[in-house]
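Structure tokens please, single chain.
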Amino acid sequence: LQSECTEGYIDNSANNNSESENCIPEIFSYNSSTQQAAYFFLVVTIDNESISNDDWVGAFNGDVCVGARKWDISQCGNGVCEVPVLGYDSQLTFGYMLPGQIPTFKIFQASTLSYIDAVASQESPWFNFQTPVINSLDGYETDCNGDIGGNAIEDCAGECGG
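Here you go.
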């Protein structure tokens, strides 16, 4: 039986990286690795509002997803969730983290099916088996120029600010 995922999600049951979720946001698919760290965030927000239990946080090395987690704080110890951030260990994990690299993060907002770039309150370089605790991860809406809080939009020809 193949699981049926709703719009914006893909079936990830073959990778089985998430303990209970077979359907994950489309760009949050990643492979398992023996090289791994867990980045803990005390608070995760979008425009200063806490994200919902249906939202996700993904970790990236450039444009390669290296880990993701549904942000249901009721399922996390003491209400503090972690994002797995995986390192390079084989051909399946080419482009994953190497020691000293700094991951970036995105928030998948389930209600709008949108990906929002997020900024950690402090940068923590990746090292195998590391478990940094970071105060906050803050996502901000950006316009088509990438400006936080900007109001530039794409015109009918697809030109930003046109």
